[in-house]
Amino acid sequence: MTDLVPADFTVPRELLAPEFRLEPLGERHNASDHAAWTGSIAHIRATPGWAGRGWPPADGMPPERNLDDLRRHAADFEARTGFTYTVLEPDRDEVIGCVYIYPDREDPSAVSVSSWVRADRAHLDAPLYRAVSDWLAGHWPLREVRYTPR
What we know:
This protein is α+β, with helices and mostly antiparallel strands. Helices cover 31% and strands 21% of the residues. The chain contains four helices and six strands; from the N terminus they run ββαααβββαβ. Strands 1-2-3-4-5-6 form a six-stranded mixed β-sheet, with helices on both faces. Strand 5, helix 4 (125-139) and strand 6 (145-147) form a beta-alpha-beta unit. The mean pLDDT is 95. One of its GO terms (molecular function) is transferase activity. This is N-acetyltransferase. Keywords: Transferase.
C-alpha cells in the first residue's frame, strides 16, 4: 500500500476545537476507547456512514482484541497508510469518539473519512463533522474526500 499523503507532508498530531480535541489513537486509549464504543453500539451503527459496515460488532469484543485494533491503527498511522484519531474531551483523556481517514475501499484514489461519537455526546456529531471537514480541506493534501454529511 502506498502513502496516503505525500512523503513531505507533516501529518498533524492534533486538532483542537472548543468541544473536543483529536490526537492519534494509540494503546493508551484502550480502556476508554473500548468503554466509549461498547456503550454506544446502536448509536454508532445509526450514525451517517456506518450503516451496513458490521462495526461495531453487535456483541462487542474483549478489551484485548480492541487493543489489537488500536495497535493496527497506530501502525497504519506510522506507515502513513491510514490515520485514526481519537476524539477526546477538551481537558481530559476521556474518549468520546473516533475519526478514521483511509483510502476509499471502492476507489483507492479517493479518501474515505468516517467518524462516530458516544451516544451521550450525540450533539457533537455535526460539530465534529464540520471541524474535521474544514481541517482536511484546509490543512491536508488529500485527493477527493468522501465523508457522509451530517
